[in-house]
Amino acid sequence: MKKIVEFFTSLKLTVALLAFAIVLVFIGTLAQADEGLYGAQAHYFKQWLVIGAHVFGHKIPLILPGGYLIGMLLLVNLVTTHIYRFELSAKKAGIQFAHAGIIVLLVGQLSTDLLSRELQMRFIEGETRSYSDSATDYELIFVAGNEITSIPRTMLKPGGEIKIQNLPFAVRVKEHWHNTDINYRAPMMKNAPPLTTNGVAVNFDFRQAEDVKELNSKNVPSAVLEFLTPAGSLGTWVASDWAGDPSLVEAVRNGYSQMGAAMAQKIAGLLVAPQIIAVDGKKFTFMIRPLRVYHPFSLTLLKANHTVYPGTDIPKDFRSRVRIDNRQTGEKREVEISMNHPLRYGGYTYYQYQMTAGEMVERSGQTPSSVLSVVRNPSWLTPYVGCVLVGIGLIIQFLYHLIGFVSKKKTP
Amino acid sequence: MKKSFNKWFPPMLMLLMALWFFGNLQAPKGKGFAYAEFGRLPLTSNGRIVPLDSLARNSLLQIREKQTINLEPWKSHLDHPKILPATEWLANVMMNPAVADEWPVFRIDNPDLVSLLKLPEKDAEKKSDGKHYSWNQFQPVIETLEKENSRVQKVEPTSRTAYENAIVKLHRSLMLYAQLRNSVQPADARDWPAELAAFVKLIPEGIAAVQAQQAGKAFNRDNLAAFSAYISRFQFMARLEPPLILPPSGKGNWRRMGDALLESPRSAGVDGSIQAFARMAGALAANQPEPFNTALKDYRSLLVPTEAKALNKARAEMFFNQMQPFYNAMVIYVLAGLLAVFSWFNLSETLRRSGVWLVWLAFMIHTVGLVYRMVLEGRPPVTNLYSSAIFIGWGVALLGLILEHLYKNGIGVVAASVIGFITLIIAHHLALEGDTMEMMRAVLDSNFWLAVHVITVTIGYVGTFLSGFLGLIYILRGFFTKTLDAATGKALVRMIYGIVCFATLFSFIGTVTGGIWADQSWGRFWGWDPKENGALIIVLWNALILHLRWGGIARDRGLVNCAIFGNIVTAWSWFGVNMLGIGLHSYGFTQSAFFWLVLFAASQLAFIAIGLLPVKWWKSFKIRAV
Lengths: 412, 626
What we know:
A: 10 helices, globular, B: mainly alpha, two-stranded antiparallel ribbon
């Protein structure tokens, strides 16, 4: 026991952990060029053990403690040292404060990691939303009248078969692609046969693509599904986020705008045309769409405003004017959300994230739209507390040293 | 006699340099064209009000990496080649291109590019230095360049070769030049005032012809052709998106000349400001200073009633350009550093004091420049990479002077002057990328957080660089000279330790407040973004040094070597992460800096290697052992 305590309270352990942390952060930063920000986070920081790394485009065999392991050990190291070496004296007060602050920061980050949730709310001017979409997670849904059946993405295993009580058919997952490209099959250019002859696949090709690496782009999942009833197969269909996420539909429409507005509109229309399967007289539509989280209130985008500095395209301001409508409390008011000025409401914080607005957009006839980043983080205050504690601690400590230093200088 | 010389030499030297500085403040007053007055005119460029002088200097920096133009670059400096100030160059580009297009203003450093474009090589006989070429020299080969450029544009900026970078740079310079040529008059105008007058006269008939044609009635073909020729020339001007040179008419923004001319048939017509510029252009092309200066004066008085604020802003910034505080401070830092380094060897107190006095002067000029910039911008001192370099130099100079005051051993003053000098050199090179007072993008537009986060983090850089530099002094003096006696060595180690503590405090608070800013604007405290990670590594490294010291694992030389490694860590965070070109912070992208960063890291590692050599090889320690 004594040895264990000695190990965990030793300064050498601290030094080793700090050194490992530096190496890990450095490699994890370099690897972002190859693996993307999210990939690198998962591989190095939100990880217990790192095996293999990417440096300047090369794979390097190595084993490192991951972010979780280093953070955990550092936490244990700090807490045990705090307990076993605690000393109430002016000389040590600064050190105690600073390390307590570090503990708060570490615990805060851990809980943020476990508890925080990042969503998005997209709307065009005039639209009202009472839910937020997940930026990374998605679901396969079946709609029959008012009845919605949701299948989470984790169940979509290629080769698997999904049977759910509400559905009078089984879903066989033929393919499940994490990220896909889409192409309109123009009538004159149908080179390869379509994936299936049902629904959206008649007019569009879906191809598997590599995962995105850029921070602001997202993977667009698609799945090839076959529906099986006891009476036989209902055929093979494609369900894609390309059709389920309005912002992607908009992107497809813009992508084909050089073919003329009417043609682009037609292509977008083909993309979102409901795919219907009928079983025992009951009609089902289905789609893949971003996972939804519903709020007990709604937001309406009144105005999306993007200004630039005169004569340039340097963005000066992004600003969304939004109306909050809360039926439970009867609250109804307007607020402005802009860069550096988020809205904190109902346990969530709404940040201005992306925007398609401004003079250029209005001139092209599009309706301005805005994307808010919606974050729930119960431990958002911990960095503030931690920073203040460490700051106070370090200032006390260094003032103590400085006073000693100056008075020593004066007495030769 | 000698005593009073020793006493009075340092302040006298400082006074001399101060006089030199104030002497440079005077704007050269030439006869003829009032170019200096022309340079004070305001316009809107890069989204902000600037004097024409700033536009001229920033453009020249981008095009030829200098703030002046040398008309005879093939001559050596001893032969006094003809050198023109930036405003004179700009006035001619804008309003007298027939002359300016012959001036060798475009600098090309890449020999492959020179041979691709079949440009003359270095040959004084043929009046070529093999580096600088005129607009006219590119005209025959513009297609070749366009083709190469459109190919290179598809290559990722991070994987471009030196040749490809040269292509992009030249293309950008030519575009910039084309914008400037078309900001006051159509560049192809032969006699702009006359053409403008003819256009004004044509407006009613031209409109009538257009309307008649649209209505399907008979119309005057000549009038229509002439009118649409004007319109398409103006459209070409506007499409290039040159700076906004005309004041607002009524409310609204400043206007482009091309847009205003296009607008004129529809609205009030050609207003006084357009006319004034045309008069200036006509006079300049005809080489008549008198009417030019009168037109300039008239234009100024036209601006006074509505644009007094812009006039003042432009005048203030012009004065700042003229003052060149950072360049002058840099020169004085060099001088001070040399004096102070020599003081180590003969231990002359006079030399050391001279160094201190001069650093104080340079520091004051540096401070004036820093504060002046803040007032001009209405921002905290650090807003971009350029100003961070200025601020780091300033901070180190201040800390160095404080250390010198405490220890009086010639170390603080050398650190202050050398790092002051190096950071200002870095700033000078960063200024080549364009306007250094560019407007803040929406994400960064928060003076509070710029002040709290950016300043503290940059002070953290100041600390780590200073402690690293003190480490270098320890090794240089200890290993290569006999001047590192026991007392100096001890003092250096204590300085390093103190500065590392200082750096830890500021880099920690800077990093966490950065997280809090991110939480305020993006909704996450920590996103493992490269710039955040860079700052985190600095904090971790400083914490590591302190723990090594407290644990007795690192003694004097260990501390010194760790501090030097801190230089690499900080340089990585300052510049290295920007080169990865990823993440939310990657707006400060720089290309050629990569080579220097690697060289810097290698040199620091070399010093650490020396620092690890056995004590018996150290010149200073050998003496002491005996």
